[in-house]
Specification:
Helix content is 91%, strand content 0%. By secondary structure, it is mostly helical. The protein starts with a helix and ends with a helix.
């Protein structure tokens, strides 16, 4: 799911940068990518921690 969001906004940044230099739109797109990557990081840490807990204690 996050790959789709990151890829979509990356393509928007590419098109926006190619057509004209609108810094506010590009910074908004980058903010969405950063939030998506942060959420993915948290979810991955939770899943890895859960798997480690299951292996060690169960």
């Amino acid at each position: 799911m996050s790959f789709i969001l990151i890829f979509r906004y990356s393509m928007k940044i590419y098109v926006e940068n190619k057509s004209k230099n609108c810094i506010t739109k590009i910074s908004g797109f980058l903010r969405v990518i950063n939030i998506t990557a942060s959420v993915q990081l948290v979810i991955q840490v939770v899943i890895i921690s859960l798997m480690a807990y299951i292996v060690v204690f169960l």
